[in-house]
Amino acid sequence: MPYHSIVLVKQVPDTANVTAEAMKSDGTVNRAALPAIFNPEDLHALETALELRDRFGGTVTAVSMGPPKAADVLRSCLYRGANRAILLTDRRAAASDTLATSYILAQTVQAIGGADLVFAGRQAIDGDTAQVGPQCAEKLGIPQITYLEQLVDVRDRSVRVRRNTGSGWEIVEAPLPVLITVMETANRPRPEGARRVHRFKRARVEAEVAAEVKLALPDATDDEQAAETARRVEALRKQGLLIEQWDLDRIGADLDRCGLSGSPTKVFRIQAIVLTKEGYTEIPPTEEGIRRLVHELVLDHSIG
Amino acid sequence: MIEVNRKGEVWVYAEQEEGVLREVVLELCGKAHELASQLGVPAGAVLIGSQVAALPQQLIAHGIDRVYVVQDPRLEHYQTTPYAQCVCEAITQHKPQIVMYGATPLGRDLAPRVASAMRAGMTADCTDLQIQDVTDPRSKEVHDKLLLQIRPAFGGNIIATIVNYDMWPQMATVREGVMPLREPDPARQGQVIPLTVSLTDDLFAIRLIEKHLQPRTVNLKGARVIVAGGGGVGSKANFQLIHELASAIGGAVGASRAAVDGGYISKDYQVGQTGTTVRPALYIAAGISGAVQHRAGMEESAKIIAINSDADAPIFSVAHYGIVGDLNKVIPTMIKALKERSVVE
Ligand SMILES: Cc1cc2nc3c(=O)[nH]c(=O)nc-3n(C[C@H](O)[C@H](O)[C@H](O)COP(=O)(O)OP(=O)(O)OC[C@H]3O[C@@H](n4cnc5c(N)ncnc54)[C@H](O)[C@@H]3O)c2cc1C
Ligand SMILES: Cc1cc2nc3c(=O)[nH]c(=O)nc-3n(C[C@H](O)[C@H](O)[C@H](O)COP(=O)(O)OP(=O)(O)OC[C@H]3O[C@@H](n4cnc5c(N)ncnc54)[C@H](O)[C@@H]3O)c2cc1C
To answer: Does B225-344 match B10-203 at the fold level?
Structure first.
């Protein structure tokens, strides 16, 4: 029997590869200089959903919340085989913490009409909280299975998953619908397919089209630009190349629960980790130097 | 969420598996005791399971004043929804101002579910917690004695301080091994308070089919001295040097991810963000560059010795003693010096 899945995917700065170019002169990280990438574990979530669909039929819908630029990760989902992509973008959603983010994503899932399985990555490499998956599950009122390592089986209306418990592993069975968070050990994500890249590389969200029109027709009036944008959007829609762009009104969100007002946690202060060379005692790599060091460690009881 | 409640207790979620409390829980008991004393309120713990009667005394010995216990045979194995229901119910009844959870896989599964149901804040993976008066930079309103929740984010490249002004309780998961474990006081007195939570069968939607515990054979967290090797060791065969130094010094062996990825040693020994967080009396890092993800797991060590051939390696920024040199020469010299010392004494 076919299953309908929704996969939550996030665009993140590549925090794992902070290169010299991304460092400011004061030794702190320049976030803007980090390339924006597909959150690594979300690729594994997508792969899990695609494999399920390839086996049983059904659909895979990718959903991302972020600025228009986040359409990049949705295009990548289309290149890899997703059936549908939706970008939730709205200025009023900015500064959402995980509670507000999960509310918005859960409302989006509901506005889509729900799914048999909702997949998320375990954790995003920027916020690093791993909270959005479980919070979405709670908002949707469905069970959650975190840390999937293997989707063992799906049968009728239930799923069996092998999950990592940190102190070993377990196999659990849950009724559908369920939300599952996926670890990077789960599978090997398929590459983008050349034919699908060719087909979907022109896929856009409306905000991207509007920006392109602005560049192409710098002298046109706002009305003319809007008309041209509408024309191009319609053309994309006809070709199946429009990535849906939704806002908070589209999902019937309660604005008090979005953005800053819906976020209990506030970032009060941020310190960049600066590598200071605050003096350490340099020990010469000689027998004499090392013998003194050992002696010192014995004296201050660091070693017995 | 609950109202701001400055008389509220400071709580720990007492995570247990098979009737054994997690070490991080005992660490948090000490922290709860400290924060509660600063706020002038009792420290509490929420304990959930099927056969947990023996555990409250251990929590009390580590600094807890009141242990709230939910016991039900159906709660034998952890399962998110019913456990979350118990915690929410306990919070709703007793209105603690702070709730801390270990940032373990289980804690990070449970805590966000509770936060979502309570519509309260949850700060992930904290490495420090402090009480301080805070002025909201937007409204200029002063909030007395808030919990500053300090955590690395952005792949460990930044440290953020998070506060929760009014959507309480103030809740956080706390990384294992960052709060010092206090000496337990077996004579300490406390109260055990049974809680009744109505748990309908439909909450137990998930069925456990099979469970495998992989006993942790490596006890890095308990080690007083750790000798850790990294990518600079070069090969599995050469990693023997690290084992030899560890045994000469009476310490445990640790590793960076490059050493684990290189197959020099198993993942159980990895120190860092995705390995174990340690704070031994002495940490020796040999051939480890000191990437943020590694430093996150060891920089709280009381004393750090770095051995690296590159004088600009970031590991030196957290080191107390630095030896710029080839570990293949330095380590044998160290082993020799250690052995001579034993002969003399
Ligand atoms: C320095 C800093 C610290 C922060 N600390 C906290 C904190 O402690 N508590 C807190 O509540 N908020 C915190 N936030 C806010 C939080 O980072 C954002 O709410 C973020 O949008 C979601 O959290 P995350 O990146 O941790 O995602 P995670 O919870 O780690 O993401 C897990 C999965 O959820 C899905 N997902 C997450 N975000 C999206 C999205 N936008 N679109 C689609 N899918 C998504 C993905 O599948 C992802 O793999 C912090 C923000 C900053 C800048
Ligand atoms: C999400 C994420 C999580 C991570 N989690 C962890 C983690 O938990 N723990 C962890 O350790 N890493 C972690 N990493 C990896 C981390 O970023 C580094 O890649 C890793 O720590 C590098 O290990 P290393 O310093 O041993 O190896 P390398 O980077 O290869 O450095 C080797 C060092 O050895 C020195 N050296 C070489 N030869 C000699 C010699 N003969 N004598 C003396 N010195 C010599 C070199 O100068 C160099 O500094 C994580 C990365 C990511 C992206």
So the answer is: yes
Q: In this structure, what token pair is assigned to residue A55?
A: 């086996």
Helix (H) or strand (E) holding A213: helix A206-216
Smallest CA-to-CA distance from B8 within B95, B89, B75, B92 is with B95
∠ at Cα B224 (B278, B32), nearest 5°?
55
Give the start-to-end residue ranges of the domains of chain A.
Answer: 3-205+243-262
State the ipTM, two decimals.
0.90
DSSP state of B315: G
N-terminal to C-terminal alpha carbon distance within chain A: 66
Per-residue pLDDT reduced to its tens digit, A253-267:
999 999 999 999 999
Class of the B225-344 domain? alpha beta
Please give the angle made by the CA atoms of B258, B261 and B266, to the nearest 5 degrees.
Answer: 105
Is the Cβ–Cβ distance between A101 and A257 less than 8 Å?
A: no
Q: 3.20.20.70, 3.40.50.620, 3.50.30.60, 3.40.50.300: which CATH number matches A3-205+243-262? A: 3.40.50.620
User: Hey, what are A170's tokens?
Assistant: 């377990």
Residues within 8 A of A (CB atoms), B 245-264 only: 249-251
- Shortest alpha-carbon distance between residue A185 and chain B (Å): 13
Q: Where are the domains of chain B?
A: 10-203, 225-344
Q: Say how many Å lie between the CA of residue A130 and the centre of ligand 1.
A: 7
Tokens of A179: 């939300």
Strand-pair partners of B280: none
Ligand 2 site: residues with CB under 6 angstroms?
A: A 16; B 230-232, 256-259, 270-275, 287-289, 291, 293-294, 297, 307-310, 313, 326-328
Kindly list the residues from chain A whose CB atom is less than 8 angstroms away from the CB atom of residue B323: 282-285, 289-290, 293
Q: Please list every residue in chain A whose beta carbon sits closer than 8 Å to the beta carbon of residue B152.
A: 128, 273
Distance between CA atoms of residues B127 and B133, nearest Å: 20
Class of B10-203 in CATH: alpha beta
Q: Write out pLDDT tens, residues B127-145.
A: 899 999 999 998 999 999 9
Structure tokens at B90: 């306990």
